């Protein structure tokens, strides 16, 4: 069960069993300095759960706060009475708000990506840059890897974040570490995507792999390939080069309007 599911279940269970009417709950004595609306919403959540769950609230819109729980994101009404997860569709404006707040969080996370430690396939004339969470044993990752020459030629630089299928010490992990630590890592990556193992490894590069695995965990990405676009949108699965470039062009046009 995900963190948000546990959190929502805990909220509902506690509210049904024990919560008095919210209007009757005193969040702070009248003599104290008045709390902000955001603090009131936080207090309601903590009062309902009866536990000190670690979450953050961020401003989002006139009606909602963006609630961050680990690497999951929900919406909380400004009065603290309603918590939303899953898909929340604004029918009038055709916006999926949960998807939108995930994009916001992804864009913030992208600022902390150590690109200098990633395996990069630079474009000849860069127009776009994407980050792809990949695995050398994943069939669709290998299919996507074959698109790299076309992507580079079309102006797309590709940064790889490695997510090996096994934990540290497993054959998959060691094979991935060896690929990153080869003298010519891009060539080793090309070979690995053709099922040809890299020859050696070293401790420094293994540390780089540990960092990349933690980075994927921070974003909450587990499936491969996952393509992270500049606008923060995450595309799961294989996307052909020309379709991906068309998507990037459309996003840039939409953001410039």
TrEMBL record:
Cited SUPFAM superfamilies: Thioredoxin-like
Residues spanning the signal sequence: 1-23
UniProt keyword annotations, A-Z: Periplasm, Redox-active center, Signal
GO cellular component assignments: periplasmic space
Pfam families, A to Z: Thioredoxin_2
Keyword Isomerase among UniProt keywords: no
Localization: Periplasm
Boundaries of every Thioredoxin-like fold domain copy: 124-248
InterPro entries, A to Z: DiS-bond_Isoase_DsbC/G (IPR033954), Thiol:disulfide_interchange (IPR051470), Thioredoxin-like_fold (IPR012336), Thioredoxin-like_sf (IPR036249)
Family note: Belongs to the thioredoxin family. DsbC subfamily.
Function of the protein: Required for disulfide bond formation in some periplasmic proteins. Acts by transferring its disulfide bond to other proteins and is reduced in the process.
Protein name, entry field: Thiol:disulfide interchange protein
């Amino acid at each position: 069960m995900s963190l948000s599911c546990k959190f929502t279940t805990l909220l509902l269970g506690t509210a049904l069993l024990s919560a008095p009417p919210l209007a009757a709950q005193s969040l702070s004595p009248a003599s104290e300095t008045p709390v902000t609306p955001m603090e009131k919403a936080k207090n309601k959540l903590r009062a309902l759960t009866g536990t000190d769950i670690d979450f953050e609230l961020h401003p989002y819109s006139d009606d909602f706060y963006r609630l961050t729980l680990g690497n999951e994101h929900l919406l909380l009404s400004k009065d603290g009475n309603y918590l939303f997860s899953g898909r929340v569709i604004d029918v009038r404006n055709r916006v999926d708000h949960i998807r939108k707040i995930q994009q916001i969080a992804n864009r913030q996370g992208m600022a902390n990506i150590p690109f200098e430690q990633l395996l990069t396939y630079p474009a000849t004339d860069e127009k776009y840059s994407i980050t792809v969470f990949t695995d050398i044993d994943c069939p669709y990752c290998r299919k996507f890897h074959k698109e790299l020459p076309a992507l580079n030629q079309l102006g797309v630089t590709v940064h790889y974040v490695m997510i090996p299928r096994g934990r540290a010490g497993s054959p998959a992990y060691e094979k991935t570490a060896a690929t990153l630590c080869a003298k010519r890592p891009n060539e080793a990556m090309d070979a690995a995507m053709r099922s040809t193992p890299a020859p050696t490894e070293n401790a420094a590069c293994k540390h780089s792999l540990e960092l990349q695995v933690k980075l994927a965990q921070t974003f909450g990405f587990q499936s491969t390939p996952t393509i992270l676009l500049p606008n923060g949108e995450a595309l799961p699965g294989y996307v052909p080069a020309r379709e991906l470039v068309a998507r990037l062009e459309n996003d840039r046009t939409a953001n410039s309007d």
